[in-house]
Amino acid sequence: MIYSVTLNPSIDFIVRVEKFQEGETNRAFADEFYAGGKGIMVSKLLKNIGTSCRNLGFLGGFTGKFIEDNLNLLNIEHDFVKVKENTRINVKLKSEQETEINCKGPNISEIEIQEFLKKIKSIKENDFVILSGSIPSSLGDDFYIKIIEILKENKVNFALDSSGEAFSKSLEYKPFLIKPNRDEISEYAGKKMEDYKEIINFTRENLLNKAEHIIISMGGEGALYVAKEYSLFAKALKGKLINSVGAGDSVVAGFVDSVLKGKPIEKAFKFAIACGTATAFSEDIGELDFIEEIKSKIIIERMV
Hints:
The chain has about 300 residues and is α/β, with parallel strands linked by helices. About 35% of the residues lie in helices and about 25% in strands. The protein has 10 helices and 15 strands. The chain has helices at about 40-50, 60-75, 110-120, 145-155, 165-170, 180-190, 195-205, 245-260, 265-280, 290-295, and strands spanning about 1-5, 10-15, 30-35, 55-60, 75-80, 80-85, 90-95, 100, 130, 155-160, 175-180, 215, 220-225, 230-235, 300-304. The strands form 2 sheets. Strands 1, 4, 5, 6, 9, 10, 11, 12, 13, 14 and 15 form an 11-stranded mixed sheet that branches. Strands 3-2-7-8 form a 4-stranded mixed sheet. Strand 7 and strand 8 (about 100) form a beta hairpin. The longest helix is centred in the C-terminal third of the chain and has 16 residues, at about 265-280. The mean pLDDT is about 95.
């Protein structure tokens, strides 16, 4: 079983405005509500490609009920800890530019924390866990590490898609997959890095011994997969960006699923990039037929 952990889920409230004017009354021509949070996005992509995934995390209030109902409608498994405060709502304003307002999230009590950790302790060696997204402030910055320590004790493999201290500390436990972007690599290195070769060399020297697989997002340019003897580059396809929310999560889900099913790395990477691209070109998470269509157009360049 694949588990996705979303510590700080959200309702993603998409608001579409023709021409946003700051300080004025703006009228939306469309709006949508989606169950959001990076781990939930992972599970939605996995569902679309035919793989079961169970969501873990915290949900509360009328907003948490909406997310639960939405996942039930999609037939996606979940086992969230119920908390007293409302799950957050994140606003995605789409106009000439895309603007996000991400809220803080609920306070989580010690009793709720222990109930969640009990669920983590029940995960078995043959399972896999994808950890992604922000951490509610009430849990503390090291909460991912608490989870990872339990997983490693149970010999459970995990992928981490997070940044900052959680990213750097997780490397002590050798994640199956990390997916930093170019800025996060620069932050970890302590210097700005733009050149592909410089990024590849730094990754080989400093990260390959700390993670089994590394995918680096290069923004609108594409993505890199870095291995010891070679690297792979997938150039971004040209198309209309409809939805940046969930694209990176789709990459993670697609890669993990492919590798766990025994696919060669190059094919897994190509499929992962197709998953991310399909989501970016869709209103919500990419559907399998569209992913396959996109995959036929993606070119993977093998680099030294």
